[in-house]
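Ticket #299: bound-state structure for manganese (II) ion.
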Amino acid sequence: MERLSKTKRQPTVALESTIFSHLGLPSPANAEALDRCLRAVQSGGATPALTAVLDGAATVGVAVDSDPSLAERICGPARKVAARDLGVAIGQGWNYGATTVSASLTLAAQQGVRVFATGGIGGVHRGWPDTGDISADLDAIAAHQLITVSAGAKVFLDLAATLERLETLSVPVLGWQTDNFPAFHAQSSGLPVPHRVESAEEVARIASAHWKLGGGGILVAAPVPEADALPFAELTDAVDVALAQAADDGVVGAAVTPAILGALADATDGDSVPTNLALAENNASIAAQIAVAIDQLEQ
Ligand code: PSU
Ligand code: MN
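RESOLUTION: The complex was predicted; output attached.
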C-alpha cells in the first residue's frame, strides 16, 4: 500500500471516496463536496487522507491537490469497494475502486490514522429480517481503532435497529452537542444517543481511555448545521418514495445505497444534495478538530 506522505504524528483525517464518485453524489456536486471536505480538514489544522484503489493500488492520501486529474478520477465512474472487496480490487488491478466506509477504515487503520470523516454511515436496512441487508460499515467501525464522524446513519435505514447493532458491537455512540441521533439530512431522528459530548478534547479523552482498554471504533454523530437541514417529515415522505422506486426497480445488494440516494435526490427535487454537501463538510471540520485534539493529548 502507498504510504502516507506525512508522518503518522501529524493530525490526519481519512476520507472515503465512494461519496465523491458517481456512486455517491451527482456531478458537479461531487467535485464541490470533495473540495469542501478537503478544505474543511485543512482549515481545521489537519491533513486530509483520501482513500481509494487506483490502478490496483490501495492508497491512503490520494494526491488530489497536486494532481487535478486524480480529483477528476475520484469524481468519476467507479466500482464500489467495501472491506471484503479490497483484495479483489487490488488483485484484479481495478482502475478505480471507490472505497466505502468499511474499506476506508480498513486502509486507514493500517496507516495508524485515528480519525475518519464521512457523510452518513451505512447500517441496518429496513426489512433486514427478510433481506439480511446490514452494511459492513458497522462491523468495520467496531473492528478498527478509529473515530468515525458522521451525520448519523443514512436516513432510509432502520435507525433504531442500527443503534441496537452498534450497542451489540460495543461501539460507543457520542452525540456531538446533541442528545439525539441525527437523521442524516435532518438534525434529529428523535432517537436518543447514549452519550453526549461538547468538544473535541472530550472526544479525545474518551477515545484514549477506550483504546487503552482494548476497545475498537467510536462513532461521533454530528447533526447537519441547522441552516442546511431538511425537515424530518418532508424527508420521511421522500424516503418512502425512494424506497418504493428502488424496490420496483428490483435493486439488490451493493447497488441499493447508490440507487436510493439517487431516488432521494429526485424525490426532494434536488434539495437533498446541498444538504448532503453541508453535512459532509461539517463532519470533516469536526473530524479535524478531533484529530488535532488527539495529537495534543498524545504529546
Ligand atoms: N453516504 C452518502 N453517500 C454514499 C455513502 C454513504 O451520503 O455514497 C456510501 C458510503 O461509502 C457507505 C456506503 O460506506 O454508502 C454503504 O453502502 P452499503 O449500504 O451498501 O454498505
Ligand atoms: Mn448492503
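RESOLUTION NOTES: The pocket of pseudouridine-5'-monophosphate (ligand 1) is lined by residues 16, 18-19, 23-24, 100-101, 119-120, 122, 135-137, 154, 254, 257, 261, 276 (CB under 6 Å).
TICKET STATUS: resolved
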